[in-house]
Design a protein that fits this description.
Pfam families: 4HFCP_synth. Its EC number is 4.2.3.153. The protein has one domain: Copper homeostasis (CutC) domain (TIM Barrel), CATH 3.20.20.380. The chain is an alpha/beta fold. The protein is about 40% helix and about 20% strand. The chain has an 8-stranded parallel beta barrel with strand order 1-2-3-4-5-6-7-8, surrounded by 7 helices. The longest helix has 15 residues.
Length: about 250
């Protein structure tokens, strides 16, 4: 599992990489629930690190306009983003599929990967059922999936989707050759569950910010390093992620 840290500027990006983040995800928390950052911020972050540091761009919640979204996707690719995430709010499945297909066309000639994003709490916002994300990614020829949350009130991914459902989706995606990422106010106490689900990427922000405040805090290298150590310990088997399950079922 790779560690993805969401950042809003070059200073946070440097802290994330210093702490051991594998992926720097550039976004803008000041626009809507999750928004896109400015091209010059993305350019600065991309140019600050070697190519092996994965710099992803979050388009966040996109409008139901295929031309507008595909142009934004093209912009992310022109800025040499490693991947670009496209998520939907108040969008039906067929519209989302059309937008992703046009976005796929916009990436022709680039190495940037297209990630189809859905939200575990989408039912609160009129969004797409997150259980359709693998189908959506396959039909649009996307390169991977992300399941995140929009609600930022203390609840997280596992308040909206259970371990069994997420594990099945991750396995289905992997069997289809898609990369898999889970995010949504994740905390270290969720890492045993995440390790059992085994996505390719685990995304965090609040857990690595000052005072765990994702909006007003800043990403701190020491917090990133701590989260990375906890993740690696579970990957290496230094922490038994199945023991709690055995106690419950035993």
């Amino acid at each position: 599992m790779l560690l993805m840290v969401s950042v809003q500027d070059i200073n946070e990006a440097r802290q994330a990489v210093m702490g051991g983040a594998d992926i720097v995800d550039v976004k803008n928390l000041k626009e809507m629930l999750v928004g896109s950052n400015f091209p010059w911020v993305i350019r600065e972050v991309r140019q600050a690190f070697p190519r092996e540091i994965h710099v992803s761009v979050t388009l966040g919640v996109v409008p139901n306009q295929a031309g507008t979204v595909s142009l934004a996707v093209y912009g992310a690719a022109a800025l040499n983003a490693t991947s670009v995430k496209v998520g939907f709010l108040n969008t039906d499945y067929e519209t989302a599929l059309r937008i992703l297909k046009e976005s796929r066309k916009a990436l022709e000639g680039f190495e940037t990967k297209l990630i189809a994003a859905t939200f575990a709490d989408s039912h609160l916002y009129g969004g797409i059922d997150p259980k359709l994300v693998v189908k959506l990614a396959k039909e649009s020829a996307s390169d991977g999936i992300l399941i995140d949350t929009l609600t930022k009130d203390g609840r997280n991914l596992f308040d909206f989707m259970d371990e069994q459902t997420l594990r099945a989706l991750v396995l289905e995606a992997k069997e289809s050759g898609l990369s898999t990422a889970l995010s949504g106010a994740l905390r270290i106490e969720n890492f045993d569950t995440l390790a059992r689900i085994n996505p390719d990427i685990v995304g965090v922000r609040g857990a690595v910010c000052t005072n765990h405040d994702r909006f007003n805090g800043q990403v701190e290298a020491s917090a990133v390093a701590r989260v990375k150590r906890e993740l690696v310990a579970r990957m290496r088997g230094e922490i038994d992620v199945w023991s709690s399950v055995a106690r419950i079922t035993g």
